[in-house]
Amino acid sequence: GWLFWRVMACGRRSGDSKRQVILFILCVCLCRSGAETLRYSLPEEMERDSFVANIAKDLGVPLSQLAARKARVVSEGDEQLFRLDQSTGVLTAKESLDREEICPQSDTCTLLFKIFFENPLQLIRGEVEVRDVNDNSPVFPEKEMVLKIIETASIGSRFSLESAQDKDVGINGLQNYSLGPNPHFSLADGTAKDGVKYLELVLQRQLDREEQGELNLLLTATDGGSPPRSGTAQVRIVVLDANDNIPVFDREVYEVRLAENSPLEQLVLVVRVTASDPDEGSNGEVRYAFTQTSERSRQLFQLNRTTGEIRVVSNLDFEEAKSHKMVVKATDGGGLYAHCKVQVEVLDVNDNAPEIALTSLTASIPEDAPPRTVVALFSVRDRDSGDNGRTECSIDGDLPFSLTPTFDNYYELRTNAALDRERTAEYNITITATDWGTKRLSTQENIFVQISDVNDNPPEFTQEVYTMSVTENNSPMLRIGRMKATDADAGKNARVNYALVRQEGKEQPEVSINAENGDVYILRPLDYEKVRAFEVTVRAADGGSPPAQRPGQRDAARQRLIVLVRDRGQPSRSATATLAVALVDGFSEAHLRVSEEAPAAEPDGPLTLYLIASLACVSALFLATAVAAVVAKVRRARRGETETLPTFPPTATESSAGSLPRSYVYDVCFAAGTVNSEFRFLRPLFPCFPAGLPPGPGEQRSSVCS
């Protein structure tokens, strides 16, 4: 941690941005590959919120970075024992720590924790050793121990006593024993080869039941604390009449292997210990009992005093204790006894499912997040051992996420593909952790991830062209229709606003549009004789930043117009031209499209039939119109009119007699977005025929691109 801040500070002083980036990447790699473990110690039984360490000072981290990077401490296990103050950088104990409660069967008590930083993600290991204080006195299993000793016992005979137990460790644990003054016994203690401490009475003077049939001794156990603590027990010696045989076990040590979680209802037989005594009567009757056996073992196992059968009466847990050691005492009716040892090895069974602990979660990510974006960090542990404790993680279903293992059974949940909120707005990710046991156990954890919207969709009109009508002399601000556009985004990114598009060179249209709902209004009364139709362009834009927009106007990609022109001579003559208009993306493909799609002229089509019918009608009415023609000539002479331009006839039936001498086909191509509303032809361009399409009979062909 301190290396990270030193490197960043060095980069800032140097002013070299490239070097700073390289140093930062190097630092992140070093931090992720294995940071130094922070080690602290704390006496047990300290008050809550006791000071443990100044993390900010030890790591060299500025206090401002603790809150900015969301620094936090996570203890291993289910209970969080420490608290990190982001404002001061001080690590404190949340509660008073009892070493004997936290680490009941360990000489050393080390609590592991990790400190997490975000932006960028960083993890630092730490450990706190809880130091023992002398807060427990030695305790004997029984306040009174009764020994029955035959009066014929020889000098130097040893008699086992129950050892005291002290929950403290080290110098604070049990150190020595003392025996009250008496003329017959001394005290001896030691450690067996298997590490078990023993305590014995040693006979120093011959017993005489007739002189003294019972002795009471005070046994004291003292620890090494300052000040020392002690515990006492009464030892009552009952002197027995002569019994010359003691019970003898068939084995000194009984070794048993037993699987954990054995069924209790069957009272599984662990072992049967057997001791024999050749004496007769009560002196040969043997009774069994536990001695020098821990309280926990007495709770787990039951010993039949008569048969010597040992059965399981409570659940064995491999994770709690891997073995149990017991001592069985066989006593005959005359008070003589012998000991044997019973060692039970607990075999691990896959009885613990993996545990998933979520450390960090980003509940919402934008849909444009790049692949391999970290979404969550979690750890997996299994309290079993061997293959039963090995785990693997997977994601259920075909989702755009993957798992990346880091270290110490930590995994990162990352994206592995592009996200699209419009297709999937949220993901319910099921993470399955499975162990490698023969009967595999698994645990599932559901992680909900919301996909936040990004303005990546423009509004779409429900129609390409909207046709609306209104009668002339309408009232002002008359609503004539509505345009509708939808946006697949969400929130303000989907809020659509409408606006008219101004076109250069054209008058402002006599309409307006409601920006919120797309209602179209006529601003003032219209005159059919002046304006029969007009077009407007509406743009729909969403509320994103920047907004995505979609225009509302598109015409058909191909248009075909037939133009008829005639003069006012007597008889009137006329000609036609076919105009093919193609909308292309660019002029590079204009001639190609014209040559492929332009239709050939059809001089004998329906238009010719209409013209022939018109000529027949004109012939029939020739006499009636002759007088009108003379009158019209006279009037024109008076006005001095000598020449008139040809005009288009209102209908095809007004054509005068005469045949159409020639028709032309013009091909015109407009690029998308063309706004010019007129085009002119000064003369036909005869040589411009597309290859493969010769002109029809009596037809001239010209291709024009605009």
Question: Helices, strands, pairings?
Answer:
Layout: H1 2-14, H2 17-34, E1 38-43, E2 50-54, H3 55-59, H4 63-68, E3 72-75, E4 82-84, E5 90-93, H5 99-102, E6 110-117, E7 122-131, E8 144-150, E9 158-161, E10 174-179, E11 185-191, E12 197-203, E13 214-223, E14 230-240, E15 248-249, E16 253-259, E17 269-272, E18 275-276, E19 287-291, H6 295-300, E20 301-303, E21 309-312, E22 323-331, E23 337-347, E24 355-361, E25 364-366, E26 374-381, E27 391-395, E28 401-405, E29 410-415, E30 426-435, E31 442-452, E32 460-461, E33 478-482, E34 485-486, E35 496-501, E36 511-513, E37 519-522, E38 537-542, E39 549-551, E40 558-566, E41 574-584, H7 590-597, H8 606-620, H9 622-639, E42 663-671, E43 699-705
Parallel strand pairs: 1-7, 8-14, 16-23, 25-31, 41-42, 42-43
Antiparallel strand pairs: 2-5, 3-6, 4-5, 6-7, 9-12, 10-13, 11-12, 13-14, 15-18, 17-21, 19-22, 20-21, 22-23, 24-26, 26-29, 27-30, 28-29, 30-31, 32-34, 33-37, 35-38, 36-37, 38-39, 40-41
Helix pairs in contact: 1-2
Main location: membrane
GO molecular function: calcium ion binding
Membrane topology: Single-pass membrane protein
